[in-house]
């Protein structure tokens, strides 16, 4: 039996919830042999096919790209602006729809694919606009985001296990590393585009470093974790 207000499991015969103090009406009611609020899982249950939905989504992404390419060819005789639209839609399709084609949607695999598609999009934009910022800005920033995100995903999936507090160390370290990434971005903006170093990166670095240290302190201190769990159910 559970409290209807806070959800805490109650012992038999109690008159009030030990957490929120709500009076328990009918404490004498016997528990049913199967108190689960959800139906039993049955093998061989009917599964829903996503083939039709994926086909519709593919058409919705492909049709605007084809229309833009045809319009661009008719107006300019070659592909000018439609390439940006087509590559942008392709990247959105990779992020949104590609994982739906697989039964096991592992972020360890699809996050690098999405980041690689984004880096390829940046390369296309750089080449079409005649810029010289891909190798000195877009590629290192995209690579750093890819490495940081993939490291966090792998660590969360393969090192946490039953020890949930380990996720606090991983997320805390990731927050501090993200602050360092902000410093890298400002430095590369200065090197690539000649922008002055105004050290705006220190503001997100300070905020992310404080958040990261807070998560690490919570992970190190078991009484603090228990207190937060009791108060906020986390």
Question: Any key phrases for this structure?
Answer:
234 residues; mainly alpha
> Per DSSP, what share of the residues sits in E-state strands of 2 or more residues?
under 5%
Rg of Cα set? 26 Å
Helical content class: 55-70%
The averaged pLDDT comes out at 86
Element order, helices and strands? HHHHHHH
In total, the number of strands is 0
Q: Unreliable stretches, pLDDT < 50, 5 or more residues? A: none
The shape, in one word, is: flat
Q: Compute the separation of the termini in Å.
A: 22 Å
What's the story with the biggest beta sheet?
Answer: none
Explained architecture:
The chain is mainly alpha-helical and 234 residues long. Among the domains are: 1-30, no CATH class; 130-234. The protein has helices at 51-76, 82-96, 107-129, 134-158, 166-193, 202-220, 222-232. α1 packs antiparallel against α2. The two termini are 22 Å apart.
Q: Could you provide a short overview of the structure?
A:
By secondary structure, the chain is mostly helical.
Topology:
Layout: H1 51-76, H2 82-96, H3 107-129, H4 134-158, H5 166-193, H6 202-220, H7 222-232
């Amino acid at each position: 039996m559970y409290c209807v207000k806070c959800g805490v499991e109650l012992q038999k015969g109690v008159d009030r919830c030990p957490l929120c103090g709500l009076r328990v009406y009918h404490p004498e009611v016997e528990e049913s042999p199967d108190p689960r609020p959800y139906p039993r899982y049955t093998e061989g249950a009917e599964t829903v096919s996503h083939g039709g939905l994926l086909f519709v989504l593919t058409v919705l992404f492909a049709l605007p790209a084809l229309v833009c390419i045809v319009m661009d060819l008719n107006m300019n005789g070659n592909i000018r602006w439609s390439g940006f639209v087509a590559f942008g839609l392709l990247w959105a399709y990779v992020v949104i729809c590609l994982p739906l084609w697989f039964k096991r949607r592992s972020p360890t695999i699809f996050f690098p694919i999405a980041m690689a598609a984004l880096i390829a999009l940046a390369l296309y934009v750089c080449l079409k606009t005649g810029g010289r910022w891909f190798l000195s800005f877009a590629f290192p920033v995209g690579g750093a985001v890819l490495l940081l995100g993939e490291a966090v995903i792998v660590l969360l999936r393969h090192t946490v296990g039953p020890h949930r507090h380990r996720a606090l160390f991983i997320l805390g370290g990731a927050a501090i590393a993200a602050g360092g990434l902000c410093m890298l971005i400002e430095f590369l903006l200065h090197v690539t585009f000649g922008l002055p170093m105004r050290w705006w990166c220190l503001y997100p670095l300070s905020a992310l470093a404080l958040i990261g240290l807070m998560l690490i302190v919570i992970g190190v201190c078991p009484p603090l974790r228990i207190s937060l769990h009791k108060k906020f159910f986390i």
